[in-house]
Amino acid sequence: MYDVIVRQAKIADGSLIDIAIQDGKLAAVGQLPPDVTATRTLDLHGQYWLSAGWIDSHVHCYPKSPIYHDEADRVGIDSGVTTVIDAGSTGADDVDDFYQLTRQAKTRVYAFLNIARTGIVTQNELADMAQIDKVGVAQAIADHPDFIIGLKARMSSSVVGKNGIQPLLRAKEMQQENQGLPLMVHIGNNPPDLDEIADLLAAGDIITHCYNGKPNRILTPQGQLREAVKRALERGVLLDVGHGSASFSFAVAEMAIRQGILPHTISSDIYCRNRISGPVHSLATVMSKFFSVGMTLPQVIDCVTCHAADALRLGGKGRLEVGADADLTLFELQHVPQVFIDSEGLSKAGEQLLVPLAAIVAGEVILTAEGKSKNVFDL
Ligand SMILES: [Zn+2]
User: Fold this and answer.
1) What residues form the annotated binding site?
2) Where are the domains of the chain?
């Protein structure tokens, strides 16, 4: 007898599978005999979709952050997201406090540590090089090896002030000194110029806000991929969406995707204000926007499951396989006309909307508001 069985779930390739969960892990994946029992059975009757738990690679959920704050479960399980990675809200000074606060969340929370010891307290945390404290960073990583999964450097003009590319050079040094942890680099207005940033990045480094519409974007004014970004992608640098309030342009995404420049990970850059007032709303909304720029359901799901788990080195996540963490997202794909808005305030029509119905975290089933109202598991 298992803890939970999910029967007849539709997965991204359209096939139907059953899943059994025991002690917080996936115990069976495939077709289960009819006589197998569990404490709780959810029969989706081939009507609802299931994937490995969604991972949002770029959120802000340190509740005490003065600008970009939120609660982990508001950006996580409330919208079917089982794992969130806070992208640099905290630095060495306050990551302990952030870690403690996240222990109460049902959502699994990890952090990219801001290379500035203050995190994002002001908008210009890298304008003073004295904020970049190697000893503090190394100590924080040593104190929280299972929480801090990487480093974050925000490399745009308002953040770095007169320091140009210098903070990124320090970030790369710290990455070397700390087991080569993933490094997420935010791009925006120049200086520093994106070419200069891209040339410093290596395989596994992550560019977030990859489809921003600012002049310092990945495409040239003629719409071609910048040579420096092309070389970076060839070296294995990864593109992360990081939609946010100012960093996603439908026009840029569409032009890039048409040239085969797909995102490696789709993330929201969500926090309370852009969650409530838009244009982000939820990871599901951000994912749905990619149907309108030429991506398929399997491609979109891969971006928030296996791609994210690999990029962030989250072992046991992102795949429906025996022994993996029993983190799952149950959702519906609604076919109804939509109008989506990007960060430039421009709209685009769509026909499909992902609606999360439940997050399952370590085998615990947590319905979203939609899931509750539909009584999908009233069995
Ligand atoms: Zn962000």
Assistant:
1) 58, 60, 152, 186, 209, 269
2) 2-51+322-373, 53-311
